[in-house]
């Protein structure tokens, strides 16, 4: 009897606590889950907690190290390969990018004389250091380590984007990402829409007819396929037809991933633009809730795709745990190299503590089917086309951050699908621009998650204020309406005495309503107090 009493007491306590928590924290209920990344759904709250923990490490890297603050690219010299952009040029001041021009460099270090700029990767630890500690002649400023900016450019058929270092050398510029933040520029209209339409159109994959047939024998090899097979075949007599339908859906997993990466990148960019939106009335950069809700907030799939991109890059960085241990970031500058390496290792070490939220093995299963390589090649080719489309963006600042983020996602895909972290791969190389783009893109997506939470808090706060105001102004409106009605009804014999009587009647109604609201709140606090008191008494009983 005593055990049953204890059991029901504990059960009552747990139920009461859950009820109070739900009532007092309605916005914290877990209602959003991320799918398609592993064999189980992932709650948004877990991703948000991870993003919150990693944010200080990312900010320290992207703003506190020369290695990740500067980016080398061909921003102005490459023409759009798909259409002319003369009609879509952005003349807005906000579109401009502050760059370090080549003319500011000493002759010995101009790209035309230097050729391919060299630096270190993890697989080249014995490369000779630069002969000077200031290869750019101090053009980046006296406090900047220029040895953190150079790299070697190697073409690889495994790249998922067009490397910036393969562009025409005389058009290469250096950009400070800190001095050129991603924000609203006013770039929109047909030119911007044309670029995004072309990017989404790259999601049209062409697959061989017999792609799905050889996979039937190995259906259990893919967890997602097995789950879908069970679901589609349940209660069906025509299993072959259902199986083919399932396999077509499974093939579309890669297509869905491609789309979600693009959609998540698009939504993340929009979130940043709305977070730092130019208020033309005040001239200040400030959050624009309406902009966010129209572009992102009212579209749950876009928000989900931002979270999807976060776990994708998170997994890519986790795979680099061993690769970056011997990575030399700033050849010839011992101090800057030590600081950068320490900060990177701190971030990666923290990431490895978290569970694996993205299972790349669900895609491109080449061990059981040769046609999977065809799909992977097309996936890579189409993402490379997306990187080419960035040259068609007319806004300089938009093109800068578009190139960086496409390169960042391309690097993440390269790591996920071309790098085996359980083996020592001497032929796998990461360029400096790839690593810089990867970290800065991860920081962009991480910031988007924080901004989404801030915007949602503002929406929740506005709804609460709106509800309170509607009650208050409803009474006020009713009060004045009755006064007007009474004045009209007494207009034939209107006097001060009648007005005062009418005013007193409505005043008493308002007072009674306010007293009722106040007493209702008192009852709520009383219930909470009694609940806490009962919890303590039950706890004391067990002690």
UniProtKB/TrEMBL annotation:
InterPro entries: Ero1 (IPR007266), ERO1-like_sf (IPR037192)
Pfam families given in the database record: ERO1
Required cofactor names: FAD
Cysteine pairs bridged by disulfides in the record: 90-95, 395-398
Keyword Nucleus found: no
GO biological process entries: protein folding in endoplasmic reticulum
The UniProt record lists the keyword Cell wall biogenesis/degradation: no
Highest taxon above the source species: Eukaryota
Residues that hold FAD according to the record: 183, 185, 196, 263, 266, 295
Keywords tagged on the record: Disulfide bond, Electron transport, Endoplasmic reticulum, FAD, Flavoprotein, Glycoprotein, Membrane, Oxidoreductase, Redox-active center, Signal, Transport
Cellular compartments per GO CC: endoplasmic reticulum membrane
Catalytic residues of the enzyme: 395, 398
Signal peptide range in chain numbering: 1-16
Membrane topology listed for this record: Peripheral membrane protein
GO molecular function: FAD binding; protein-disulfide reductase activity; thiol oxidase activity
Oligomeric form and interacting partners: May function both as a monomer and a homodimer.
Family (UniProt): Belongs to the EROs family.
Name the UniProt record assigns to this protein: Endoplasmic oxidoreductin-1
